[in-house]
Specification:
This is DUF11 domain-containing protein. Helices cover 0% and strands 44% of the residues. The protein has 113 residues and is an all-beta fold.
Amino acid sequence: MTLSPATPSAALFPGGQASVALTITNPNLASVRVGSLALDTSRGSGGFAVDGAHAGCVLSALSFATHTNAGAGWTVAGSGSLSVTLTNALSMTASAANACQGATFTVYLTAGP
C-alpha cells in the first residue's frame, strides 16, 4: 500500500486550519483496511516540506491531527485507490513567520492499523 504525499486543499494562514487531500493506493489483490492516518515524522522536516521559494518558512509552525475516519478507518479495494480528504487536519500557529505567506506545503503521512 502507498500513500501519496498529502497537500492542503485550501490556503493555510496563521492561526488557521486546512483540510488535506491524499490518495491511498492498494496494489494487492485483497482489500486493505487503514485504521488511522498520522504524520510520518521520519520524512521531510518532521513530516512536512515546503516549496523551495519559501525555504525561510519554519515548519515547526505546522501541526497535523491524526485521523481515524471517526473510528471507522478506510477500506481500499484490491488493485484500487481511494481519494481521502482529512477535514481540518493541518494547523498553523498564530505566530507563523511571514516567510510562510503563499507557501505550498506537503504533509507526509503513515497508515496505521
